[in-house]
Amino acid sequence: MGKTLSEKLLARAAGAGEVKAGDIIWADVDVAMMDDILGPRVEVAQGMAEIRDHVWDTNKVVIISDHYTPPATIPQAEIVKFTRDWAAAHGIKNYYEFVGPCHQIMVENGHVLPGKLVLGTDSHTCMGGALGAFASGVGSTEMLGILISGKTWLKVPETIKVTWNNKLPGGVMAKDLSLKTISVIGHSGATYKTIEYVGDTIASLPIDERLCICNMAVEMGAKTGIIPADESTLSYLRAQGVKAEMPCLRSDADAEFSASLDFDARTLEPLVACPHAVDNVQPAACCGEVIHQAYLGSCTGGRYYDLAAALKLLKGKKIAKNVRLLVSPASRSIWNQAQSSGILSALSEAGATILAPTCGVCVGVHSGLLAAGECCISASNRNFIGRMGSREARIFLGSPLTVAASAVTGRITDPRELL
Questions:
Q1: What is the distance between the alpha carbons of residues 415 and 402, in angstroms, rounded to a whole number?
Q2: Where residue 248 falls among pLDDT bands split at 50, 70, 90?
Q3: Strands (E), 338-389
Q4: Around Cβ 216, how many Cβ atoms within 10 Å?
Q5: CA–CA distance from 222 to each of 44, 260, 313, 320 (Å)?
Q6: Which domains does the chain have, with CATH numbers?
């Protein structure tokens, strides 16, 4: 019987000839990532002080202060300071702050490479699977063990194979593809499983769009989302100044999957996830909800490709009266690139407010919280109750094109109406 991609990746991490779904393995971790919100301050610092206050390999640990940057309150500033000081005291060579959401920083700086095992204290660490890595979120207690030993145990997950073929129609983006997949599998239908995306649709997508897809695998409960590495993967890494080899890893033709789903991209239309669940999906054209805020940003929808797509729709237009359009590029490098190319200036001329690269809006801790009774259309990844502010606010999720179109009309809008 052949092996799935995740079985091959975890066999490498375990130093085993082969593993199969359901096996419990001890794996060597290639990269361990912590952020500020679930980093050293939560169990890790105290636990290491009590057990062994020494990091197993300071070159393999990445710490990124992103949720509370720029700090909006004194407690947030104290958390960022604690994170910064702890990283320095423990000799962490890869510490970042004020540069954007952790997952984007990880892929931009070569901390996620094809074939590697990457674990982080954030559920959307699975985004790294877009580069052909086995990337997954872990809890702070598990991270404590990883930091001390460089190892952890994992159950090898079963894999759901998701195939998308044919070209995406105009006005449709990877976010719509992701929402469609989630609507079929359900918010818990892939619990502790791998979602492996394949097909000519996936192969034709730029890495920015692949990152969006794998980022949202956890919204189905998945342990990770993976796209096999290819030449586009290596080209992306080279553009970031990162050297990477191409591991010839992909699922075998006779690999055993727990389920296989096939989709035709030609039938896809712009979609939105309605409150208060990511799998509560309907066509954007059928919604029409009046909005107060539109958000273009985060590790899901703030990359250069997203900003450029939004500008394509917004250029020459103005956002609707009484609508706030917030734009937060997914990293400082994306911010600089978009500024140099004129995208940020053009978005500002359309009425957008340009924010620092941050997780603050997406997770509802600063820079654009919602009041009771307000409605937001967001390019981010979650629309849970209270996610972006008041528990009495409503959040819809859509593609960057849908966010831009909705900002212009003042209601949730199918972007094809304006393109």
A1: 5
A2: low
A3: 353-354, 375-378
A4: 29
A5: 25, 15, 33, 38
A6: 5-263 (3.30.499.10), 270-417 (3.30.499.10)
Give yes or no for a contact between 102 and 66, defined as CB atoms under 8 angstroms apart. Answer: yes
| Mean pLDDT calculated for residue range 82-99 | 97
Report the distance separating Cα 146 and Cα 213, nearest Å.
Answer: 27
Distance, in Å, from the CA atom of 253 to the CA atom of 145, rounded to the nearest integer, reads: 36
Q: What tens digit of pLDDT does each residue of 316-329 get? A: 999 999 999 999 99
Amino acid at the residue 308: A
Contact call for residues 151 and 29 (beta carbons, < 8 A)? yes
Asked whether 216 and 178 are in contact (CB, 8 A), the reply is yes
Q: Three-state SS for 341?
A: coil
DSSP H stretches of helix in 90-122: 102-108
What is the rounded distance in angstroms from the CA atom of residue 113 to the CA atom of residue 122?
A: 18
pLDDT at 244: 80
Strand 293-297 relative to strand 375-378: parallel, antiparallel, unpaired?
A: parallel
- In the predicted structure, residue 245 carries a pLDDT above the cut 80: no
pTM, 2 dp: 0.97
